[in-house]
Amino acid sequence: MGAAKMSARRRRAVPWLVLGLWIVVLAAVSPFASKLADVQRDRAVDYLPASADSTQVAKIQDRLPGGEATQMVVVYHRDGGLTAADRATAAGQIGRIADAHRLTAEPRGIPSADGTTLMYPLASTEPGTDEKARDRLVDDVRDIAKGGDGLGVEVGGEGALATDAAEVYNSLGGPLLYTTAAVVALLLIVIYRSPLLWLVPLGVAGMAEFLARAVAYGLNQGFGTAVTGQSGGIMTILVFGAGTDYALLLVSRYREELRRTERPYDAMAAALKGCGPAVLASSGTVAAGLLCLLAADLNSSRGMGPLGTVGVLVALAAMTTLLPAVLVLLGRRVFWPLVPRHGSTTKARRSLFAAMGSSAGRRPLTVLAGGAVLLGALALGVLNLPGNLKQEDSFTSRPDAVAAMETLAEAYPERGTQPITVITPADRADATLAAVRGTGGVDSARKGRTGDGWTEISVTARNAPQSAGETATIKALRDGLDGSYVGGPSAQQLDLKDTNSRDRTIVVPIVLVSVLLILMVLLRSLVAPLILVAAVVAVWAAALGIGGLVFGPVFGFEGTDPGLGLLSFVFLVALGVDYGIFLMHRMREESLAGAEPVTAALTALRTTGGVIASAGLVLAATFAVLTNMPLVQLVELGFVIAVGVLLDTFLVRTYLVTSAAVALRRTVWWPGSLSRAPEPPVRTERQPEPV
Question: What's the predicted TM-score (pTM) here?
């Protein structure tokens, strides 16, 4: 009697203790969660590769007198040609800007050959590395430089472009969070068909996102982990997407156990015991895949690995502790109106996934071959991907800085309009300047600041920014200037492209090997993990191919983000294997229980198909939220991952993996002991329709 009372007391106390612990933790970290936005950095150096020339240039410029220089260009334009009054207006406004702000050199106007445009390159060390001060400077220049009566005035250049990008990134946090929460809420209402139940996992996911922000801030302060607008947005997506997936699996199992168990506490304990290992294994696989990004040389990619891992692990912790506690405290009534009564059974109905599995089971090789051909055909769309994305094409809308760059490209086709920066040892500055001026493709060069043993040289190329000619000039400068560094906006884009290519060759094999080893340990097999890994790689190629078919022709994008291939690969492999674990783990359980291979495969699909489909829809929808963001690289990444998750959920998991398991039978578990177990005799009588 005493033991029974203690057990009942424990059942009542544990959920309250867990809830109280979460409240204490969230209250303790609240000051830090709100500071994450303060450490978010979206300067070029925060994205650049750590070892690149352009990164060294940015770091050395910080140490020069006045610190980092903010480069701008004020563009005055009139279609019919600038008038004397226009030039006087321009000179007056530029004079006011020079009086109000500390510029590195006296502004000098450069007219276009056709007389329609006048540009004033400006540089100021006033903001230094303070992004908010840079934004205030750019905004003030824009307030002073005004047009009217047919005179167009635009402010562009590296600093203005960074300000416009920062405005976009700063605007992502709220809309991204609210849109993601709304999408998840809508899907949960449809899935659960309950006016109450959807609030619980959504609320828990919101608390997890709050905690993840605090942990991310701690990583930044303790280890210097880079936090960018892109990595912060991806972390939010993963908390809601992965967290809701784990919630769907747990709630489905909990509902099932409530029909067999009288007390909610005992039912939840059984549910956690039943699905806990699969959830732990899948989240561990995702975390391991994301941490492989630490091997990347690109700052933004390397920082995304830890932040994505934080999102997944915090979501796991919340959905396996806080969510069960809240569900137990609310009891069965949280499922209203479809309350699972103790001793009741689910209504028998034809299962879509049973029908799909049956079609795969009748002709497994045909289904497997057809699916492989389809994925291969879709993958050919990669050949249609547009070239590398230029800075001015990175926005889905047209900010002022991009308009200025377009005006300059049209008015000055014969020369570069943004500087290439050379940093050289101060004692060799004159020799370097002479070498720069003698380099093919260089229009002009002049010395700038000197300090800390370095001298800055500003170079103007003859060719337009990010053109093949300017790229050749940058490479020639780097090849010909020993001991010097070549940077600037165009050099940064070149380094981004080259480093992404290098990171793919390093990170992709590490991800594949890591995921394969984890699957081998989990499934006690070599063949099954190889099938899953091959499947997710095929999905990635097909999703990227679909992107190639729509990015240019449908979305009108002028380029592809250089990091799209690597980031989409890491996310699709890690998240795709996540669902494969749910399916294969159940298939292994059925085989260990004595089911013959075909029955084990079809039963696994029938029992997990609905949950995997719901989870896939939620995850795809959360990443699809990125397609509504105003940055092309986020739109492209969200589209490819969302399409890949849908392909994985409804084609690869349902048909191809199941067909492969049916065709290989026990061989799918080779060389484990399960592959050598004798198969039970196959019953030939007609089986009842699975439910």
Answer: 0.82
